[in-house]
Write a structure and sequence with these properties.
Shape: globular
Largest sheet: 6 strands, parallel
Radius of gyration: 18 Å
Distance between the termini: 32 Å
Structural class: alpha/beta
Helix content: 25-40%
């Protein structure tokens, strides 16, 4: 039996892993949310690792509010950088393979083709900088690790673009959505399966990987697909916003290329 610690278990990825956990009978999971494991507390992190006898840790804990991170970057760095450093140190001490989830926002978006794992990161907002700092802590601390960069995560759980669009559409709101950013929407359920299959495979191709659902589109096109999927395309007014502004800068192209795609 392979023992797996999942941090941040009440986030959407953590919930997606919990949903499919029973399918993976060779894996024994220990799900901990922020209340039971605050990754910014190094003593707590080390005690959990010391007692658990884990072979893998899937780090789903993250500060993901891009707009708020711009206003209070110290909080984003505390979780996305320092918290990850504590996980990496505990993983090294207790011989655990760390699977850390990162983001397309480590890139500046100025490239005209999809980003590959060897492209040089250059984040343009505090969220991206905090996530890149977390990546660097993992790489500097561990030999056995997986950093999985993903993008535009959505699922049936929590606050995400898919659920927001669906909620507003069902209320009859007019939707104004930008077409100025290009990326790959990724279902968190797909990512959950990818992570667990990777554990079971026994592969040791450690390092940075990219994972998305593969189809690049703008946020406007994603909104169109959400409405169509739910039979709402003829009932809701969807407006293309070419001047959409946010407090945090966003990469215009954050499409990630997977190694096998």
């Amino acid at each position: 039996m392979i023992r797996v610690l999942v941090t941040g278990s009440k986030g959407q990825l953590g919930k997606c892993i919990q949903k499919i956990a029973e399918k993976y009978r060779k894996l024994q999971f220990h799900f901990l949310d922020a209340h039971h494991l605050d990754i910014t507390d190094p003593e707590k992190v080390n005690s959990v690792f010391a007692a658990g006898g884990y072979q893998f840790c899937i780090n789903c804990a993250a500060y993901t509010n891009v707009e708020q991170a711009e206003k209070t970057p110290e909080i984003a760095f505390q979780v996305n950088a320092e918290g990850v450093r504590y996980l990496a140190l505990a993983s090294r001490s207790h011989e655990v393979t760390l699977i850390h989830i990162s983001t397309d926002y480590v890139f500046d978006g100025e490239k005209n083709t999809p980003y590959v794992t060897t492209d040089e990161p250059n984040p343009i907002n505090e969220y991206g900088r905090s996530k890149l700092a977390g990546e660097q802590h993992v790489r500097n601390t561990l030999d056995a690790y997986y950093i999985i960069r993903t993008s535009w995560l959505y699922s049936e759980f929590g606050n995400n673009f898919y659920n927001t669009i669906l909620d507003k559409a069902r209320k009859g709101d007019t939707l104004s959505v930008t077409n100025a950013q290009l990326g790959c929407p990724t279902n968190a359920n797909s990512l959950a399966n990818y992570i667990l299959e990777n554990i079971l495979s026994g592969r040791k191709d450690y390092g940075i990987n990219h994972f998305t659902d593969g189809k690049a589109m703008t946020w406007f096109q994603f909104a169109q697909s959400i409405l169509k999927e739910n039979g709402l395309e003829d009932e809701v007014r969807l407006v293309k916003d070419t001047n959409y502004r946010t407090f945090a800068a966003r990469p215009r192209n954050s499409v990630l290329k997977q190694e096998d795609s």
